[in-house]
Design a protein that fits this description.
single chain, 253 residues, alpha+beta, 6-stranded mixed sheet, 5 helices, 21% helix, 30% strand, globular
């Protein structure tokens, strides 16, 4: 099974020649080329998500549970019904009032959310939860508290987990320790196959030159075993699909 996380970069007019309108076809091409069974996107606005839903044949967005608001940037799951079966789904805001629409706490710059669904592969018995989130880029406290909410809600459910997203922190800092440290069933899929310190950045400035840290992760619990992990540097005619490199893994169980 192949799983991808992909920060799309919201449709920002200030991006000029890198605006969504000039990248959207390449985004679709990259996704279809690598063909993840489960895709976690971040920063998508409603028009962006509608474009992907219309132009990704064989994929469905997991949004039946969602209160759609055109002012929001949503972490959103897409899945391939031909390879995985989607069950119940939900989402909540990473705040002190998680069921209050667009709520935010701990000096978060934006409302932040975790969205999730229950899945199983076609022809397999295992049911597992796939989670997609985007933690705040400004407030360290909001990132830590958001990761604690995820840990407290999901770790006790007794389901295998795959957690993907943009965590806006390097590995080994507070969020990573919270989600993969003592008592956690989760491991960092990149670290399964690469030594600590081999952590290439997953951001750039639309120029393909990595900057910052590895902030886009996919974390997995047993029984998933990571057999491949790739940061994707796909580009075309000097254009990149986003200011983040997508991250793709392959798991067996």
């Amino acid at each position: 099974m192949r799983v991808m996380t992909f920060n799309l970069r919201f449709a920002n007019p200030a991006d000029g020649p890198n605006h969504w309108d000039y990248r959207k076809e390449l985004v679709v091409e990259v996704i279809l080329t690598h063909a993840p069974d489960l895709l976690a996107t971040q920063e998508g606005t409603v028009p962006q998500l509608e474009y992907l839903a219309a132009h990704l044949p064989g994929y469905q967005p997991l949004i039946a549970h969602r209160e759609v608001d055109v002012t929001c940037q949503y972490p959103t799951i897409f899945y391939r019904p031909g390879t995985v079966i989607a069950g119940e789904s939900d989402e909540f805001w990473l705040s002190l009032t998680p069921r209050e629409h667009r709520s935010l706490s701990w000096d978060s710059a934006f409302p932040r959310m975790v969205t999730f669904g229950l899945f199983q592969e076609q022809g397999r018995d295992l049911k597992f939860l796939f989670l997609d989130t985007h933690l705040d880029h400004v407030s360290r406290e909001a990132r830590l508290q958001g990761s604690r909410m995820i840990r407290e809600y999901f770790f006790g459910l007794g389901r295998p987990l795959i957690l993907a997203g943009d965590f806006n922190e390097p590995p080994d800092e507070a969020v990573h320790r919270e989600l993969t440290g003592a008592g956690s069933p989760l491991v960092d899929s990149w670290r399964v196959l690469h030594a600590p310190g081999d952590d290439p950045a997953t951001q750039h400035q639309f120029d393909g030159r990595p900057r910052g840290s590895r902030i886009d992760w996919i974390l997995v619990s047993p029984p998933f075993q990571v057999t491949g992990a790739w940061i994707l540097y796909d580009h075309k005619d000097g254009r990149y699909p986003s200011d983040h490199f997508p991250y793709l893994i392959e798991v067996t169980y």
